[in-house]
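Hello Y.,

Per our agreement to keep a running log of every chain we model this quarter, I'm adding this entry. I've kept the format consistent with earlier entries: sequence first, then predicted structure.
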Amino acid sequence: MRRLNAVPAGVELRGKLTAAYGWTDSAGEQVLVLAEQREARGADGTQNAALYAAQYTLGQDRPRRLWMLSDGVTRCEFDASAAFDLEAVGFPDLNRDGALETVVGYRSACASDVSPNDYKLILHAGKAKYGLRGLDRQGVRWLDPDSGHLTGLPLPDDCSPQGQRALQAKGWERDFEPPYLPGCYVDENDFAAAPPAFVRFMRQHWFARMRQQEESWLKQQQQE
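Predicted structure for the entry above:
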């Protein structure tokens, strides 16, 4: 796996390049491109922010797009944001067929305060798409500068409906209700017909990203 400084000729890019990756697997030479775009506030006072991701197969007359992802925030009256989580990008071979799957994560929000973002973790296996969708850990736990104690919803370790209800029953974060507890995804329905290895990997990857976000958020508070 290698990071690319530029995209090959014939690969479409919508927005400003955030990152590009190249690799060769059993399906041939592959490229993944990630791009972001945030527009200036319009005459109506709203703002848009967009994300674009696509995988291309090279080595033919021209690059052939295998899949495309487009998402973001439109007509936001507050501050629109949409950004890839580059540490979530991965290229596993979960079904061991020699053709690597691609994993991308990203957050988006329309907000004027410090609060959790919408967060999506998407796996592509060829043209098939599977995802976990929920909220991240932005602004969930706060460090008391005097006592050093943490307040706010602890990091969930079970996003099943039963697990979220059990955590909610303890009195945490009445502003949030299952299935939207920060740090949890809504469901695993996308994986109902997928190989079991897919959902196992994505579940572990989700919680790893949430733990890292939690650590970064708390570290940021300590530095302020």
